[in-house]
């Protein structure tokens, strides 16, 4: 962020950054990362390109900020699980509908898939997404070690395997929704809740 931004009111500056991120997210979904130029992003945001450069040095910096925003949202979700009362299995099952709905959200899914596609070509984006995933796996394992977890004493490799399957299941919903637009949260939950019970219970 350059010196001009630092002199602005912090709340206003954050509003402007969010305005750019929202516009960029919309453009990336519709046009793809490479198809969406700064000119289109600035038009969608209702700001001049020069104004945008007060907040972001490049298009890559924008996508980095989008990933960072997603990480903060993820931290908030895990923090909620950590603070929730009750057995971990019950807490996770209660949060399952919201998690499924987020992964079936067409706009969020399209943006996430575009970022994953860019990661195949862009080492920096790949590294950021891998860091994000690594932290998510660490937090999930921390949850599985909670005192009220039924699998808290399992070895690391067993927990790692279960986390891998759990994340693959939720992450795969983005692709399934793209290929099957009629897919609903209710339909997914019919099969997903028993799977989650299995992953969070001894067997």
Describe what you observe in this structure.
The chain is elongated, with a radius of gyration of 19 Å. Helix 2 (10-31) packs across helix 3. The termini are far apart. It has helices at residues 3-7, 10-31, 38-45, 49-52, 59-83, 88-104, 106-119, 123-144, 156-179, 185-199. The protein has 203 residues and is mainly alpha-helical. The protein folds into two domains: 1-57, Orthogonal Bundle (Arc Repressor Mutant, subunit A), CATH 1.10.10; 64-199, Tetracycline Repressor, domain 2, CATH 1.10.357.
Summarize the structure.
Helices cover 77% and strands 0% of the residues.
Write the layout of secondary structure elements.
Blueprint: H1 3-7, H2 10-31, H3 38-45, H4 49-52, H5 59-83, H6 88-104, H7 106-119, H8 123-144, H9 156-179, H10 185-199
The number of strands is 0
Cα-to-Cα separation, first versus last residue: 51 Å
**pLDDT < 50 stretches:** 1-6
> Helices and strands: which structural class?
mainly alpha
CATH architecture of the largest domain: Orthogonal Bundle
Compute the number of helices.
Answer: 10
CATH class of the largest domain: Mainly Alpha
Biggest beta sheet summary: none
* Helix-strand topology string: HHHHHHHHHH
Radius of gyration: 19 Å
β-sheet strand percentage: under 5%
Backbone shape: elongated
Helix content: over 70%
| Arithmetic mean of pLDDT | 91
CATH topology of the largest domain: Tetracycline Repressor, domain 2
Number of domains: 2
């Amino acid at each position: 962020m350059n010196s001009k931004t630092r002199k602005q009111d912090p709340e206003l500056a954050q509003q402007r950054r969010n305005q750019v991120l929202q516009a960029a997210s919309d453009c990336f979904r519709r046009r793809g990362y490479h198809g969406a130029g700064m000119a289109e992003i600035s038009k969608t945001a209702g700001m001049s390109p020069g104004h945008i450069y007060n907040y972001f040095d490049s298009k890559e910096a924008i996508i980095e900020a989008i990933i960072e925003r997603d990480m903060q949202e993820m931290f908030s979700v895990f923090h909620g699980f950590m603070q929730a009362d009750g057995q971990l299995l019950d807490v996770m099952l209660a949060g399952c509908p919201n998690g499924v709905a987020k992964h079936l959200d067409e706009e969020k899914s399209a943006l996430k898939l575009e970022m994953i596609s860019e990661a195949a070509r862009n080492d920096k984006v790949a590294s950021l997404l891998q860091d994000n995933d690594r932290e998510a796996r660490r937090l999930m394992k921390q949850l599985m070690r909670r005192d009220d977890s039924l699998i808290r004493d399992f070895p690391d490799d067993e927990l790692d395997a279960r986390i891998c399957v759990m994340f693959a299941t939720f992450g795969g919903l983005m692709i399934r929704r793209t290929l099957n637009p009629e897919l609903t949260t209710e339909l997914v939950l019919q099969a997903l809740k028993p799977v989650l019970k299995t992953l969070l219970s001894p067997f």
